[in-house]
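Researcher: Dear colleague, please comment on this protein.
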Amino acid sequence: MPIETLITVPFSEVLLNRLQGVSPKLNITPFLAARAEDVPAEIWARTEILYTGTILPDPDQAPALRWIQFHFAGIDRFVDVPIVQQSGMLVTNISGAAVSQMAEYVLSMMLALGRKIPALVASQKKSEWPKDRFERFSPFELRGKTVGIVGYGSVGRQIARLLLPFGVTVLATKRNAKQPQDRDYCVEGMGDPQGDFVQRLYPAQALHSMLKECHFVVVTVPLTPQTQGLLDAKMLAALRPGAFLIDVSRGGIVEPAGLLEALKSGQLAGAALDVFPEEPLPPHSPLWQLPNVIITPHISGSSTKYNERAVDLFSENLHRYLGGLPLYNIFDPQRGY
């Protein structure tokens, strides 16, 4: 019997052929849909593997379904969906497919904040050549600084790799700090599989201690009940005065009121924010008006290569599924990610 595999995202014919080439046992069915109801009942009934962005069936619609592979890394909004919670259901995310572009985003924002690019652009728009240019645009150099990564997962590990030539000290928090190795999906030559690029790993409970050392803090931890509001006013106050924050995680991990106060008081010299509790960020948000904030519309994971990299990971997981091996990036209900 073929293993019926339904794909509800718009993969190209080339990528679909690559997936079909994984094994003749697979029967790949592409079906673009906006809602679960758009998928014919006979397709749901025979599907064993589902590759999806947001389309999820009710349990009684898909009695043969055994594995859901999501097209995104952040699946926190789906954790309470009945089919995801169903006993024995394999659920995996695509963590690792956006590592390259997200790490490059973080590095570019660190450099932009440290080199005062927003202020330079504002000066350019006024056709201004300031007499105090050396003082006004004095850079906050990376070399010799300490960068703290909140959540040493796939993105955090690639950030650490990119920071190697800059002469920074990299600190990070990890749920199990005694196991520095990365056991999830990792492309060869990327990331930090053995935990070699971080000078010190802190357990999640020691976040406050790590923040006291940081000139830059990068938030990459997943959103769970335990991380909701994790970086509140008290945590942000632990940072070195004049530190910078870059958030590429999920909206709600950095507490909005505490963030705004830290930016206005100067406790934070600046921030680059790609995620927000409410998206799109409302026009009335005071964050839009702060000169020390770079706001981007949740695009740090965007890449023309995203689908190709997602198929690379999905192919690896298909091989493992067919071979009876543990899948990469399995969702753990106890952890919430």
